[in-house]
Write a structure and sequence with these properties.
Helices cover about 35% and strands about 25% of the residues. By secondary structure, the chain is an alpha+beta fold. The chain has one domain. The chain has a six-stranded antiparallel beta sheet. Strand 5 and strand 6 form a beta hairpin. Helix 1 crosses helix 2. The longest helix is centred in the last third of the chain and has 17 residues. About 20% of the residues are buried.
């Protein structure tokens, strides 16, 4: 996938979910925050951020490397719209 993801957007959304979201225990993470259907968490050392919803998982790490895990490109586009919504409304 081309490097089209805006790293500033990912970091901003992650921070907004942490600030405004609900803290909850996640199956995979000890500490996760939930807002507008998106869960935000980090790995144990904080170098990799994870944003996910019901159909897409995004891992974002060192040197702005990222990976989407989803079944279709349409799901990724909808997920990116959720991220934009959170960024613009919180």
């Amino acid at each position: 996938m081309k490097n089209e993801l805006d790293s500033r957007l990912v970091l901003s959304v992650f921070d907004k979910i942490r600030q405004h979201g609900e803290l909850k225990k996640d199956d995979k993470f000890d500490k996760a925050y939930f807002l507008e259907g998106v869960t935000a968490a980090t790995d144990f050392d904080g170098y990799t951020l994870f944003l996910k919803d019901a159909s897409v998982s995004l891992s974002f790490g060192f040197h702005n490397k990222y990976n989407f895990d989803s079944e279709s490109h349409d799901q990724v586009e909808k997920f990116e719209k959720k991220l934009l919504y959170i960024n613009n409304n919180y």
